[in-house]
């Protein structure tokens, strides 16, 4: 029987919004949006009559109801749509795919310099391969989705959909690697993976199917492998900091939090101040020789001796888009950092009754778009004449282009345009002749400003503590906590239990990472949780 539960998201505000998510059974979800009356426009219908038209707008504030704000920004900002047939799956729209492709091009160019080559492996994993070594999949088993039938007949043995591809790829490394001349072998693939998250699915951040790249490399020596882990971590950090304008922390995962199949997991971590939760932004694992042993991946060295290879695996997913939206989005909608913005400039005409013919303004808009295109700047016009310009401003703000250019009769007369920044709302009038130079300059300023603002917020949210009492208080204040720790597995488990969950359902606190850049640790420093001698400073917090 299909259960039908209606969840009212409590979005009926003075704006008259009304969004319902109807969970019809545990695996499907329906999103109904009924007229979010956040903007009205005069629309001329086919018979030439004016009528009021409504626009989908954000009905809740980021710092009042973050969960619904985020869902609305993603949907109304046209990054994605909820897939109603299967819960936790989302349709990525062109805007999201364009950002993903910017990330992909940047990352591909970087790993090409490292001689990594692109492959594509099948999405199916046999049960035998996936369960070859039960240990590495420990804890993950409930997330594996299985194909059990084809048409009317049951499969003899179920086949898994890849949750990650170690067990798909490594049998072939065993075949392909014979001698030291076959090393290093560096594979990357861009693909989709499936992880059957049972609850708490969130657009981009936790979905049952997502896009990522997964790198899998094999080396003759541990040193080479360890160097690559760091090199890749650096590229990931650049994707976040330089493209997405999101500050991240590079660090090492604790024994509890590392990938069970790895020798050591390094990661970059971001922090969402509104929820006070950390979020793993990408990982780079040194797998050591664990998988080499499991899959018999050996090579003959220069002296004719057989040795096991040293392996790494590393991944960055579309979660990055979610982290970017959470970081920069505001009460008006998405805010794109210029470097990844699908559209960097939107050009809108501002007609004044009886002044200049609308067509003349539209032509001026198109001319500006052409000039921008010629300079290699992604731009588009919004010359729809059935919406007021105020309505179009709000609509474009929702979609996040970094700059808006307005052209009205006075601008035409003065040979200028008005430029408005999405991040600060600042306006300036610019001569047509200076347009390209000014736009380029503003885009750089916006990119830097978004990063600087996010970095400042991160610093404001970070709290150094030394005692349990300070820790509890900082956690209550939704801080990212840096604390001296004895590095014991049991102590981390205990902290998780003792810190309980918060009002938003965030679980207990855990380590996010031990930063590579360590503050000085006085010799007599004690662990904030156990009172034993501290070995390191680690970041703690609730997390996604
Ligand atoms: C879920 C189900 C089954 C994560 C899973 O991080 C297996 C797994 O092995 C699983 N979730 N993992 C760890 C993935 C490790 C590693 N793989 C390559 C990465 C980056 C890319």
UniProtKB/TrEMBL annotation:
Q: Looking at the record's lineage, which domain of life comes first? A: Eukaryota
Per UniProt, the keywords (alphabetical) are: Aminoacyl-tRNA synthetase, ATP-binding, Ligase, Nucleotide-binding, Protein biosynthesis
EC numbers on record: 6.1.1.15
Transmembrane intervals: none
Q: Which NCBIfam families match?
A: proS_fam_I
Q: Which reaction does it catalyse?
A: tRNA(Pro) + L-proline + ATP = L-prolyl-tRNA(Pro) + AMP + diphosphate
HAMAP family given in the database record? Pro_tRNA_synth_type3
InterPro entries attached to this UniProt entry:
aa-tRNA-synt_IIb, aa-tRNA-synth_II, aa-tRNA-synth_II/BPL/LPL, Anticodon-bd, Anticodon-bd_dom_sf, Heat_shock_70_CS, Pro-tRNA-ligase_IIa, Pro-tRNA-ligase_IIa_arc-type
Gene behind this protein? LOC104727023
What SUPFAM superfamilies does the annotation carry? C-terminal domain of ProRS, Class II aaRS ABD-related, Class II aaRS and biotin synthetases
* Residue ranges of every copy of the Aminoacyl-transfer RNA synthetases class-II family profile domain listed in the record: 98-337
Q: What is this protein called?
A: proline--tRNA ligase
